[in-house]
Amino acid sequence: MDDLLLSPVRENQFVIPSGEHIVSFSPNASSSLSAHQLQPRIMSITGNLLSVVYEMRNVIFDYTSDWKTLAAFNREPTAISMDGHPYQFTAVKGNDCYSVVLPPGKHHVEIVTGDPFSYGVNITSFWSTTAIAMFGALAVTSLFGMYIVLVVVRRRTAYERK
Predict the structure, then answer these.
(1) Which of 75, 81, 124, 157 counts the highest number of beta carbons within 10 A?
(2) 88 — phi, psi (to 5°)?
């Protein structure tokens, strides 16, 4: 969406803010090696989502609503800033999300999820797993190449002896 990679939330659905956007589909995006899947996401929101920006530990968004708004996230919120001021909240754990109640009106919200240590563990795990997989693929490819070379060399020397 708008040249930014956006992951689906529940059942392959996407949360897209109101307004005009450029949406393009990339069938290979889900298989690409990217840490964007570790980012927090809005799973659902009962208000009118006006804009959203996803960062590595933050979700920054604007919304408007005539009633209290229920917002659900894929990561547990640890801090919320509402219109530049700290906002007291209670995160309620659901089956696949953490929900918070936000006040009615038009607001600019910044949600911080997780703590720096758990984020560091997640990102380190992601990249080390990727490196291990790439090393394994390179090792298997190298072994296959060496096998082919040995088979060709043995056949060549066998023909030269005759």
Answers:
(1) 75
(2) -80, 135
| Contact criterion met (CB below 8 Å) for 63 and 48 | yes
Of 8-17, 37-46, 73-82, 123-132, which gets the smallest average pLDDT? Answer: 8-17
38-69: per-residue pLDDT in tens? 678 888 899 999 988 888 888 999 999 999 99
Which tens digits make up the pLDDT trace of 110-127?
999 877 677 677 677 777
User: What DSSP assignment string belongs to 98-157?
Assistant: EEEEE-SEEEEEEEEES-HHHHHHHHHHHHHHHHHHHHHHHHHHHHHHHHHHHHHHHHHH
Pairing of strands 69-73, 42-45: antiparallel
User: What distance in Å separates the CA atoms of residue 123 and residue 118, rounded to the nearest whole number?
Assistant: 9
Strand partners, 60: 53, 110
Residues with Cβ within 8 Å of residue 65, at least 6 apart in sequence: 46, 47, 48, 102, 104, 105
